[in-house]
Amino acid sequence: MNLLTDTSQPRVGPGFRLQWEPAQEAHVLLYPEGMVKLNGSAGEIMKRCDGQSELAAIVQSLEQAFQTQGLRPDVEAFMEMASKQGWLVWS
């Protein structure tokens, strides 16, 4: 069921724009019908999804930033959910 590979390159889906919203103190996804406020973890993942960074590099970057290991299953689970919502697409 898992279609993600080390070389998968996620990017923000068409119709969505990721930005930091100071008033919300959070990253948000803007789209024509509204806005999705992301929690801290989701924002950290989404801001690394630029269509050029591969999944393995995104996980490594997150593990370095938060000085931890073993984040891949959680990152993949979020990306799969975000993909179903149209927030992420794959290069």
From TrEMBL:
Q: In which pathway does it act?
A: Cofactor biosynthesis; pyrroloquinoline quinone biosynthesis
Q: Does the keyword section mention Nuclease?
A: no
Q: Where in this chain does the entry annotate a coiled-coil region?
A: none
Keywords assigned: PQQ biosynthesis
Which function does this protein serve? Functions as a PqqA binding protein and presents PqqA to PqqE, in the pyrroloquinoline quinone (PQQ) biosynthetic pathway.
Record's subunit section: Monomer. Interacts with PqqE.
Check the record and name the NCBIfam families matching this protein. PQQ_PqqD, PRK02079.1
Concerning its family, UniProt says: Belongs to the PqqD family.
**Name the record gives this protein:** PqqA binding protein
Species the sequence originates in: Ideonella lacteola
**Gene from which the chain derives:** pqqD
